[in-house]
Design goal:
mainly beta, Cathepsin D, subunit A, domain 1, Pdz3 Domain, 9-stranded mixed β-sheet, 6-stranded mixed β-barrel, 3 helices, 30 strands, about 5% helix
Length: about 400
C-alpha cells in the first residue's frame, strides 16, 4: 500500500494585501539563451551570492523557500517606494505585516532581472540573520524563468535557460510551483521496515539546514502505517523562524529505513517533525551531490551516488533561541531529560562561556562542535540552579 500526502495549506506566505495587491509573479529576465556561472561564499553553510542593484554591490542569501527580500538599509539606499504591505507567516506560523517594494533591476553576474518584487525586513537587527552579514534574499520568484544548478564542492551556482547545456546524466523528478512566489515542491518517497510505502510532497528550501523535516500534519497521516520508527517525543521548540521561536509544542524524533529522492536511495535517515505547514528538504543534500532546479520545465535533478548510507548519530537534545538567550529547545534522550528541560539556559560548553558570547560566536562554536562525541554542558534551569552534565554520544 502506498500513502501520498499533499499539504492543503501549501504556500509559505499568507499574502493579504493591506494597501495594494502584491504579485510575486511579476518580473522577468532580460537575456535569452544565457548561461551564467557565479561563485558563492558559504557562511555557516548558507549560500551567499553577489548582487548588484543600482550600481551598488550587495550580499544576498540564496533561499528557494522564500520570496525576494531586501534589508531596510538597502531600501533606504535605493530610495524605493515601500507603500505596499502584506501579512506574512513565517515557518513557525508567527505573523507580521511587512512592506513590499518593486525593484526595477537586479544584476546577478551578467544577468539582468527586471521589475522584481521583494519584501523588506530589518536583517541587520535580527539576532541570527545579522551574523550572515547579508543585504537580502534571492528567492524562488526571481528564478521562476530560469534553471538553477548548485554545486557545493565547487562553490558555484549556474543560472541558465538551456537545460541541455548542463549535460545532466540523471533522470529528473517533477516539480510543482505553488503560489505567485513559485515555491518549488517535489516528492520524496519512503519505504518502512514493514515494506509500507509513502510519499511526502516537500519544499526544496536552500535556506534550511539539515536534510529533511516532516510537518506534523504529514506525520499524523503517515503515523498509523508505521513507516517511520518513533525514537522519541519532546515538548519544546525545534527551530527559529524569521519572526522568532514560536510557542513550545510536542515534536517527534523519527527514523526511516529507506528514503528515495530522485531515484537516489537514502538509508538510515533521522529526522524530526516541524510545526511548519509544509515538510521540506534542505541544504545538507548538497553534501551528497549537485542539485538542479528547473523552473522552466518543472524538473528536479539530484546528481549523486545511487545509494547514500547516512551515519548520523541519534541526537540527545536540540538548541534554540528564546528571549535572546541560547537555550535547550528539545530533549530527546530520556536519561538526559531527568537533568535538563526545555528553556534551560546554556551557560557553557566545555570551557566556552556561551552565556557571554554573541549569537554569531555561538553559531561558529555550534558548527565546530557539531560532530563532537563527548563534552561537558553547563545549564541554568528555571529555578536558577546551575548544573554541569557530561554529554556522551
Amino acid at each position: 500500500m502506498k500513502i501520498k500526502y499533499w499539504s492543503i495549506l501549501i504556500v509559505l506566505l499568507s499574502l493579504f494585501a493591506k494597501a495594494q495587491d502584491v504579485n510575486f509573479d511579476a518580473g522577468s529576465i532580460k537575456e535569452k539563451k544565457y548561461l551564467e556561472a557565479i561563485k558563492f561564499e558559504s557562511v555557516y553553510d548558507k549560500i551567499i551570492i553577489p548582487v548588484v542593484i543600482n550600481g551598488n554591490e550587495y550580499r544576498f542569501l540564496l533561499d528557494t523557500g522564500a520570496p525576494n527580500v531586501i534589508s531596510k538599509k538597502v531600501l533606504q539606499e535605493l530610495n524605493l517606494d515601500a507603500s505596499k504591505s502584506i501579512t506574512v507567516n513565517d515557518a513557525n506560523n508567527l505573523v507580521q505585516n511587512i512592506q513590499a517594494v518593486d525593484i526595477p533591476v537586479i544584476k546577478i553576474g551578467n544577468l539582468t532581472f527586471e521589475n522584481q518584487v521583494a519584501l523588506v525586513y530589518d536583517l541587520e537587527n535580527h539576532n541570527l540573520l545579522s551574523c550572515f552579514k547579508i543585504d537580502g534574499f534571492i528567492g524562488s520568484n526571481l528564478l521562476k524563468n530560469s534553471i538553477l544548478k548548485i554545486n557545493k564542492s565547487q562553490q558555484e551556482i549556474i543560472i541558465t535557460d538551456q537545460i541541455k547545456a548542463l549535460n545532466l546524466k540523471v533522470k529528473p523528478s517533477k516539480v510543482k510551483l505553488f503560489g505567485s512566489q513559485k515555491a518549488p515542491y517535489i516528492e520524496i518517497n519512503f519505504i518502512g521496515k514493514n515494506k509500507e510505502k509513502a510519499t511526502d510532497v516537500v519544499l526544496f528550501d536552500t535556506g534550511m539546514d539539515g536534510l529533511y523535516e516532516i510537518s506534523n500534519r504529514a506525520f499524523q497521516v503517515f503515523e498509523k502505517y508505521n513507516i517511520f520508527d518513533v525514537l522519541s517525543k519532546s515538548e519544546g521548540i525545534s527551530s527559529l523562524g524569521l519572526f522568532g521561536a514560536g510557542d513550545p509544542t510536542l515534536q517527534t524524533l523519527l527514523q526511516v529505513e529507506t528514503a528515495i529522492l530522485n531515484n537516489v536511495t537514502i538509508k538510515n535517515l533521522i529526522l524530526n517533525t516541524t510545526d511548519d505547514n509544509n515538510s521540506r528538504i534542505g541544504l545538507e543534500f548538497l553534501d551528497h551531490g549537485n542539485i538542479t532546479l528547473d523552473f522552466i520545465n518543472k524538473n528536479f535533478y539530484f546528481e549523486s551516488n545511487s545509494s547514500i548510507t547516512l551515519e548520523n548519530k541519534v541526537p540527545k537534545y536540540a538548541t534554540t533561541v528564546v528571549d535572546d538567550k541560547y537555550v535547550v529547545g528539545l530533549v530527546w534522550d530520556k536519561e538526559l531529560a531527568k537533568e535538563i528541560s526545555f528553556a534551560d539556559e546554556i551557560i557553557s560548553i566545555e570551557s566556552f562561556n556561551v552565556s557571554q558570547m554573541s549569537f554569531c560566536e555561538i553559531l561558529k562554536l555550534k558548527k565546530e562542535w557539531k560532530n563532537k562525541s563527548n563534552y561537558s554542558l553547563t545549564i541554568k534551569n528555571k529555578e536558577n540552579k546551575i548544573t554541569t552534565i557530561a554529554i556522551e554520544n
